Amino acid sequence: MNRFVRRAAALLAAAVLFVTMAAAVGPSSAARAFEGVFVSLSVPAASPQRPTVTARVRFANLKAGYSRVCTLVWYQDGVPVRTDRDFTLTPGAGAECPVTTVFSAGTPKTAVIGCKLVSGSESVYTETDMELKNFSKRFYARLKASSDPYAISVVRSQNVVLVYALGEDGQHSVLQNAFLCSTGPGTPTGTYSLSDRYPWRALFRTAKVHTPYVYGQYATRITGDILFHSVPYETQDPADLKTEEFNKLGTEASLGCIRLMVAGVKWIYDNCPPGTVVRIYDADTLPVARPAAPVIDETAGIRWDPTDPDPVNPW
Predict the structure, then answer these.
(1) pTM higher than 0.90 for the full model?
(2) Per the domain annotation, does 189 fall within a domain?
(3) SS in 3 state form for 203-242?
């Protein structure tokens, strides 16, 4: 599945788009409801120092007094990241959606942010490019040559993981990525070092010893029974995600491990070698905007992590 080839022709970034209905066989009532609406979609550039930005959409050219409850779906590179089933479309109505980019040496120069407005069987869709201002190739080459390229901070009270890269000053002072996570009552504070890692790992379902296991992908040990890992799965199958647990990211939801979406936890698994320092602490503020994670529409019946790069991921 190629998530970056999503459209037949590029649209102008941050443009004001005149939307026409795709249904060409004669107008339905829903088509007439959307006919002539102007959609303005914009999103600022993202960078490792600003991995989370806010996309904004606004609707215009509707008659005075117009009002319709619709579904509004946001996309990032073709993957739905947020669904609002109670969006009220009125003249001048607008909405916002935070989007977070995971940066690495292979991150493309742009991402596609899309927005779909749905009413019944009819929809209008628009998209725009988000510029991604990544570090230089020289920067990543220097990190690759280092035995200690990254340090990780877990801001327990904020349920956020921050990854810092080695700067030219020899300190881990350059923010590389920020991930939304879920901690738990058993998450300790202190300074630790990464050790063992597992593509799948059995996890405790509850604090009771004799309950059946659940499983986590891309688990990396922090200390003792505390690991970075994905949101739990019922089995060792990436199509068996506990979607209700995924939608708890950003809140305290684990027993003590650090849960992340697959894109984040796999990044740690792939890029942070054994010995990487992990500092877990509480703080009232963050050095960047709070990161976001997709919100799964549980009515869709798809039990995959939307950020999982597995080529058979249906998202």
Answers:
(1) no
(2) yes
(3) EECCCCCCCCEEEEEEEEEEECCEEEEECCECCCCCCCEC
